[in-house]
Amino acid sequence: MSELQEVQITEDNVNMQDPLKAAELAAKLLAVQEQKHSIETPYGMVTVTIQGSPKPKRPAIVTFHDVGMDHKLCFRSLFENEDMYEIVKNFVVCHIDAPGQEEGAAVYPAGYQYPSLDQLAETIPSVLQYLNFPSIIGIGVGAGAYVLARYTLTHPNTVEGLVLVNIDPNAKGWMDWAAHKLTGLTSSISEMILSHLFSTEELSGNSDIVRQYKTAILNSPILGNNHLYWNSYNSRRDLNLERGGDVTLKCPVMLVVGDQAPHEDAVVECNSKLDPTQTSFLKMADSGGQPQITQPGKLAEAFKYFVQGMGYIPHILDKKRSMG
Q: Does the keyword Flavoprotein apply (predicted)?
């Protein structure tokens, strides 16, 4: 494993009142310190991308992406946003790509047995052990949010906090299953994935962002692999979360969903099942199905408050207030 390069960026040479400068430095910090690893797990090889270097007495930020994406498509807009500069500077970030979903992945042969979402959750201990990360703050979207939630239920002592975007904690019911099968008769895999990621209004509006993701998904060279991850998502088990029960997320949780987004009802229901003293619920207006892509600045700001609430880097927000 090659040595991580340390980039010295101090308060003195960063003008935080210049958003463009901050964004450039955040992107530079991520690019210079990026390291890729292929890690063997009980359920196949997993590619992880490390950005930054571990900080003493601070958890790693671990991300897990949604269906039809890799970590870049899912999280690049968020982590390169100017408002994430302080987070990038103060935490090591670990992006996990689900098996076969990473850029340049080989296409799986016909009949390949892809891991279930529960099994994907059990790839995370191998990753953390390999990287020597004792604790994490997880950020997951869609299928990735489910994976991180499942991991947290099984390994609660290693998770300090969770940001779950578009989580659906429920297994598909018979009506959902039947509707999914019928949709599959008339829609391509790409179209079904797109309708999972974006609302009907977004898809018909065809904004630049939606068009970019349509192109990426429709032309994916690993569409067969994407299909396998999609099938695992649609075969997920119920998390069986229960407010006040034995099965619950015991760490601080921030639930995020866009207003009128495809998964709004599921996230609202998830919120009703979690401890209200540990859970914050962020419903983002005008953000559509992928708030981390369409409103990265707002989500970054909320994430900074979330991290501050956990007792880390309290100076960030105080400094920003003094500047305002």
A: no
